[in-house]
Amino acid sequence: RKEVEQDPGPFNVPEGATxxxxxxxxxxxxxxxxxxRQDCRKEPKLLMSVxxxxxxxxxxxxxxxxxxxxxxxLIRDSKLSDSATxxxxxxxxxxxxxxxxxxxxxxxxxx
Amino acid sequence: xxxxTQFPSHSVIExxxxxxxxxxxxxxxxxxxxYRRVMGKEIKFLLHFVKESKQxxxxxxxxxxxxxxxxxTYSTLKVQPAELEDSGVYFCASSQLRTxxxxxxxxxxxxxxxxx
Lengths: 111, 116
Fold this sequence. Notes:
Chain A is mainly β.
């Protein structure tokens, strides 16, 4: 079983749509959770950290359910510029600070 | 402020040859990480330096890979001899040193290695 699993997509949505990505992680000791964004042939960039209480940054909302070991990312009012691969990332601080990545979910927003 | 830089951006070598990748972290970042993405797979951790010391090298695939960070500044990752399965994108990341919790890791643009 993969440590971090994501639906690879692709998700093809029109501009203005709302889209949700899901992610599950296998290590219950995981302590830090993130969504990274990666554009084609570019480096991963931190989109947002994910907290147990849920957090929002503009059009982006992230949720964490520790009991279910489930992380989500909701994007509202999709823009063309949101097209990218979204990487679910976790970390078990007790094991070190290395990040553990999912394979990513590809989003394509069209006009 | 300059970001993480990596050199070269691309490298094409033949099986059995040696390649050395370089990473310059963000100035002042004591943590330096190497990751690799093999085609069709997720990004995977290779190793972690704190300043010049190897903190965790549990992700290094085998002894053909040698990482160094002399002086605690830039780091090199040498693959010798290279094999076909070493092809992929090698990312370097850096972060500040914190006594607790985790700090944001900033990634470099990666080195795309192709072994023929």
